[in-house]
């Protein structure tokens, strides 16, 4: 019996309207002038912003590493707790995401500014004030705060499905905690790690609100450049589309690398089962 393809039609229409058509429009404006003539000058001009692109990739990488370092042990501890404690911890992780994104970023501005809560608290002990706002550290902190749940959730999901009998077997065979972690726990959690890295790195490299508010405009990132081309006095949608096109290529490369990593991991697990 042949299955009907009609139920998939709404999803195809959705993808065409909200994914395919916008991508085509970005590519069209990236390779055309204001009059609609073909050109590669927009792509060439993106080369002027290579330092900003490199800085964006670096800050996103740092934020992703910090999220992994904080999220992995937290997800592991949470997966080992009882169901009631797990639900409470999961709710606490998701609680900040129930608030508006801008409000959360504004709260960090209040905390980090020169006369903010943190500097005033340190001033009680005669320390500071420190220049914490409008720095790369503030931008990374904002990204870690906003995107840490995206690292914890996939790690927690994978760790809940891990076969803990393998850990027990390794311990019975005399493996120490480090050997158990690197040879049993870590390999089983690799799918969660790759998913978490993708979910944190991609929005981090393309963010512009965090860098604009916590970086004070002095720490430009790729997202800021794109936003400037569409909303500032130097309105240039063609150049903005070219930068977006390059960013899209970077994201696709990152996703391809992580997908290849997942494929290799699945193949290794299949060999282990055989």
Low-confidence blocks of residues: none
CATH class category name: Mainly Alpha
Q: Which class best fits the helix and strand makeup? A: mainly alpha
Beta percentage is: under 5%
Order of helices and strands: HHHHHHHHHHHH
Let me know the largest β-sheet. Answer: none
The overall pLDDT average reads: 86
CATH topology, anyone? MetI-like fold
Tell me the CATH architecture: Orthogonal Bundle
Helix and strand arrangement:
Layout: H1 9-30, H2 41-45, H3 50-79, H4 83-94, H5 101-112, H6 117-124, H7 136-160, H8 164-172, H9 177-206, H10 209-214, H11 222-231, H12 237-273
Walk me through this protein's architecture:
Helices cover 75% and strands 0% of the residues. The two termini are 34 Å apart. The protein has one domain: MetI-like (MetI-like fold), CATH 1.10.3720. The chain is mainly α and 274 residues long.
Keywords:
274 residues; mainly alpha; MetI-like fold; 12 helices
Could you give a quick summary of the protein structure above?
This protein is mainly α. It has a single domain, classed as MetI-like fold, CATH 1.10.3720.
